[in-house]
Description:
By secondary structure, this protein is of the alpha/beta class. It has three domains: 6-278, Spore Coat Polysaccharide Biosynthesis Protein SpsA, Chain A (Alpha-Beta Complex), CATH 3.90.550; 283-354, no CATH class; 368-472, Jelly Rolls, CATH 2.60.120. It is built from eleven helices and 30 strands. The strands form seven sheets. It has a six-stranded antiparallel sheet, with no helix packed on it. Helix 1 (42-48) links the parallel strand 1 (6-11) and strand 2. The longest helix has 16 residues, at 126-141.
Amino acid sequence: MTDRPLLPVILCGGSGTRLWPLSRASYPKQYWTLCGNENETLLQQTQKRLNGIPELQKPLLICHEDHRFIVAEQMREIKIKPQEIILEPVGRNTAPAITVAALKATQRGLDPLLLVLSADHEIRNIKKFQEAINAGRIEAEKGRLITFGVIPTSVETGYGYIQAEQPIGKQDIEGSKINRFFEKPNKELAEQFISDGRFSWNSGMFLFKASTILHQIELLAPTILSSCKASLENEVKDLEFVRLDRNKFIKCPEVSIDVAVMEKTKLGTVFPLDAEWSDIGNWHTLWKTSKKDENKNVIKGKVILKKSNNCYCRSEHRLIVGLGVEDLIIVETDDAVLIANQEETQNVKDIVKLLDQKNYSESKAHRKIYRPWGNYTSIVEDKRWQVKRIEVKPGAYLSLQMHHHRAEHWVIVKGTASIERDGKKELLGENQSAYIPLGCKHRLGNPGKMPLELIEIQSGAYIGEDDILRIEDHYGRVN
């Protein structure tokens, strides 16, 4: 076992459109509780399954800038203080993200092992998962680029495959040189892969020295390296976050680490992983890995099923009743309902594209929007008015701001609110209200120890979220 420090690099990008309507760009699947411990999100489970690994460092997380406060809050909930949270201005796939992580890891002359993990996987057998990592560390120390290939348990056409030089098995965790990678095959080809014995599913998890991967990127994808270096040269520290230079990073090619490096390098080694792994890629996959009742139904929330079989039903708000249905995925949120055949769940992403083409807001955002101070939910709206429910966390404050096109009326329904209007401050309790005229500099806060809830009525010529001029902000969001 090597004593070189192990730095987890958790990739939190992606919108998980195959899990729409729950997973959307504003709040993707990695931040939801979907499987395993129902009190922990997929991101939190990704970090916690590393507990007990020797020489483990605090993680480095990479996410889209829109999700920065979600990531920070979820880490705080499990008492983890990341080394850094790097913010991507735009998604550029895994090769640029890993390059940035490796550059950050070596900034102070260090050269740790990087354990690259996706934030949206389920792994049930943590013991075997950690055994595979510890076995891979020895080869990574020698300068190999390790990827973990999942031992197939069925014929799957939704995964990429890795062909090893030697047959891979469950008993001995030994690495084998990589022959080649295959994208998602058809059923006939997948069946051949399974019978061959040298093929595994591509998990998208990696282990290598920071210096090794940087050398290979310089050799095989120099444009990525130069773009990432330039984006870090002008990085901006923002609270606990690192902002990459947008103009530099946006020039970076959008490509996976598999395509940029792993398919070309001579240093690739695949280690077998037999740890009950799933990428939670779609609703059918989630149904397969979830606990079922005697009729093979998975039920989440307010659901009643009679004479129904092989269904996944999830209610976030309203009651779902199914009678005599089979092989269905039914997912209800506050603004959309998905009803799909189990065999069609890979195509949910196409529905999201269609919604996007039609400019349906439901394609990207929920009614409930999360902010660093809490959240708000749009209840009802028209062109010139809107009603929201706002929840502010204890001790949190919104920015000092003003609006050019709308006025607001706040009604406190729970807790105590601190109100500031044009420099004058006051406290309001339940059933009290405040009017914020157009152009008034104002701030809302929660000085109490319990959540503050209020109803906000907006009215004016324009009620878009971009009609906010932030003057002061604890979270660095000043215009």
